[in-house]
Specification:
5-stranded antiparallel beta sheet; alpha+beta; 5-stranded mixed beta sheet; 12 helices; single chain; 12 strands; Beta-Lactamase; Heat Shock Protein 90; 416 residues; 50% helix
Length: 416
């Protein structure tokens, strides 16, 4: 083989190598393009999947960048708050919550993920929307910081709770009117006594008018008694009006001793007619005050005293004992010992068995005969007491009477 043949072979080999390299590069290029296309398809599919998830969420979802500008949100966010993303007018966290909540959220994110925060998101019209908010921070592989939030709209829930409170207030008012109906006999007696006295004294005055100068002193005495009896009847009517009035929402310091004495005046004739001995042990060394509403506390002690009276219907020597004072007890919510006003209403009636003790605060539960009670009294008492941060403990044995101990947080300016 000559030199020319060797050169030709070398050229062909080099060309073969180049063709091989070109084919290899083309193959690698094709494979790279295919991988890129597959990756793009995966990313696109992932994006579409994510968007479908966000669209199907019933909660509000929004994504913030490092500077707390909204970079993504779902349809529920837009529907509920009315905002749409606009690059020319970016939406910031400070636009969605007030200053104090904004600071609290940023601090919570700085400390790590926070699970639940009750706050208000401000919609496009400036209206607060109550929500529970969950948030966390995520850092991408490229170092981008993203804050993710999911908020649950609680507007309907709070509307429902407000409606429930309204219905409960109406139910409480209805129970008060029912209690007044049960007291009709006692009220009749209370009003009949002063009216009869007025009638008798007025007739005496007419007779005395035959010789007014001679009967002047008797006329003055009779007219004075008539005025006193009219005032007595007016006070009874005013008590009825006060008791039948719906409670206002304003909380004020309430003197518990004064309320109990007013309620006992209301029951005075019934206690006398039933020959019930009344024993009062009221702490008068300091004001026994709690924060609340006078009308609602009247409802509480009216029911407890009425139940005590009814339970002693078959007792030979009925006794009603009421004590007030300030004591320390563990707050069920905080588990800390705190000052409480303690009101104990004790009777020596038929008592309550263990099975009924577990149900006496249930709505519509009653041990009375059909048609003599709705079974709402103690349920309403328990709800009112718990509504003011208190609680009730009951001590009773069948045949040995019952004692209802009402614990109410002492007012700092009063009994504390």
């Amino acid at each position: 083989m000559g030199p020319g043949d060797k050169g030709s072979r070398r050229v062909r080999d080099e060309q073969g190598i180049e063709l091989g390299l070109v084919e290899l590069l083309e193959k690698q290029k094709t494979e790279l393009v295919i991988r890129v296309l597959k990756k793009h398809e995966e990313l696109q599919a992932g994006k579409e999947f994510t968007e479908k998830i966000l669209t199907s969420l019933n909660e509000l979802f929004f994504l913030l960048d490092r500077d707390f500008f909204v970079v993504q949100c779902n349809n529920e966010f837009t529907r509920c708050l009315g905002y749409s993303l606009d690059k020319l007018r970016p939406l910031n966290l400070i636009d969605l919550v007030d200053d104090s909540d904004c600071l609290m959220i940023r601090e919570a994110l700085a400390e790590g993920e926070f699970q639940i925060l009750e706050t208000n998101l401000i919609d496009q019209g400036g209206r607060p929307v109550p929500v529970t908010l969950k948030g966390s921070t995520y850092v991408t592989e490229s170092g981008r910081v993203l804050h993710m939030f999911i908020a649950s709209d609680k507007s309907d829930f709070y509307k429902m709770m407000a409606r429930m409170r309204e219905v409960q207030d109406q139910l409480t008012h209805s129970a008060r009117l029912a209690s007044l109906g049960e007291m009709a006999a006692g009220i009749g007696h209370e009003l009949t006594q002063p009216l009869n006295a007025i009638l008798l004294l007025a007739r005496n005055c007419l007779k005395a008018m035959a010789d007014p100068e001679h009967n002047r002193k008797m006329l003055e005495e009779n007219l004075g008694i008539i005025i006193d009896r009219v005032n007595k009847a007016s006070s009874i009517i005013n008590s009825l009006k006060s008791f039948a009035t719906k409670a206002k929402d304003t909380l004020v310091p309430v003197n518990i001793n004064a309320i109990i004495l007013d309620i006992l005046n209301f029951f005075e004739s019934q206690l006398t007619l039933s020959d019930i001995g009344l024993y009062l042990e009221l702490d008068t060394q300091r004001p026994i005050e709690v924060m609340g509403q006078e009308v609602k506390f009247e409802q509480v002690f009216f029911n407890l005293i009425q139940n005590a009276i009814l339970s002693m219907g078959k007792t030979a020597e009925p006794r009603l004992t009421i004590t007030t004072g300030v004591t320390s007890s563990v707050n069920p919510a905080s588990l800390r010992e705190e000052p409480y006003v303690l009101i104990a209403v004790r009777d020596n009636g038929e008592g309550i068995n263990q099975a009924n003790l577990e149900k006496i605060f249930d709505p519509f539960f009653t041990t009375r005969s059909a048609g003599s009670g709705m079974g709402l009294g103690l349920s309403i008492v328990d709800r009112i007491v718990r509504g003011f941060g208190g609680f009730i403990r009951v001590d009773s044995q069948p045949g040995q009477g019952a004692c209802f101990n009402v614990y109410l947080p002492a007012h700092e300016g009063g009994g504390a």
